[in-house]
Design a protein that fits this description.
Chain lengths: ~100, ~160
């Protein structure tokens, strides 16, 4: 599966469009991580636990989107966009969407 | 009284360790930016060389969560009283975005020739973040399309 965030797949010709595909996941942090992050908040700097958590969640959302595209018979997704929103205290939603296409 | 002492101690810890960590982070950013300087990143979508054949195109991403220290948060609260430029938060978002771009470039790898249509998004996260004291930690994500040209010398060695 080829993913791009521009209107085409460079070097390939689009032969069929399948419309929008998307994937989302809602994640909350666990207490231990939150506690460590609270401590790290005092001195500042990167919160590695959160970085990994968000990275993994985004990966999961992307996998769901790819699964959906594969069911439609697509082999590429163009114009991929990421969006993040906090739905509740301590939980955030990661949303990925794009256009499923078939390329030669 | 005891609470006041705790707050003062936290601010002092934040000041010393926070400035040290920030200086260290900026050194690391400068180092990596120099190393990755040869890989161009553009926000344009059509910057490809039409004469060269394309081998691969793929989505690359990089993300980072950075938190502010207690001292700077305190400064920002004071700044809120008078208004104006909040320098302590400027360095926070600057660090996050530059680090995210570096990670994206690292993911693209050495063979990549250009990254098209760079997008950067920033969100506030964390339970401590959105409480009355304002933004505490932010996430920056950078993503784009990495394009690799077919190397002619590989076909005819």
């Amino acid at each position: 599966m080829i993913l791009t965030n521009i209107e085409s797949v460079p070097g390939k010709k689009i032969v069929e469009h399948f419309g929008i595909v998307s994937g989302s996941t809602v994640r909350a942090k666990h207490v231990g991580r939150d506690f460590m992050a609270g401590l790290k908040n005092i001195v500042g700097g990167e919160l590695k636990g959160y970085t990994e958590l968000l990275h993994d969640s985004r990966q999961q959302a992307t996998d769901r989107m790819i699964e959906q595209a594969r069911e439609l018979g697509a082999n590429a997704i163009i114009n991929v966009r990421f969006a993040t929103s906090s739905v509740a205290q301590g939980a955030s939603e990661l949303y990925v969407y794009g256009t499923a296409v078939r390329v030669e | 009284m005891e609470e006041l002492i705790i707050i003062i101690v936290l601010i002092a810890i934040g000041y010393f360790f926070g400035s040290y960590a920030e200086a260290k982070h900026y050194r690391a950013i400068a180092h990596w930016e120099r190393l990755l300087l040869k890989l161009p990143v553009v926000t344009s979508k059509n910057m490809l060389d039409p004469d060269r054949e394309i081998e691969k195109a793929a989505l690359v991403t990089g993300n980072v969560v950075v938190s502010i220290d207690y001292f700077k948060r305190f400064l920002a609260i004071l700044r809120n009283l008078f208004g104006g430029q909040v320098k302590s938060y400027e360095s926070l978002v600057d660090r996050a975005r530059r680090e995210a771009i570096i990670r994206m470039k690292k993911q693209a790898g050495r063979r990549t020739d250009i990254i098209l249509n760079l997008r950067i998004e920033t969100t506030t996260i964390g339970r401590n973040a959105n409480q009355d004291k304002g933004i505490g930690s932010i996430e920056a994500i950078a993503y784009g399309t990495a394009v690799t040209y077919r190397k002619t010398d590989e076909i005819h060695p």
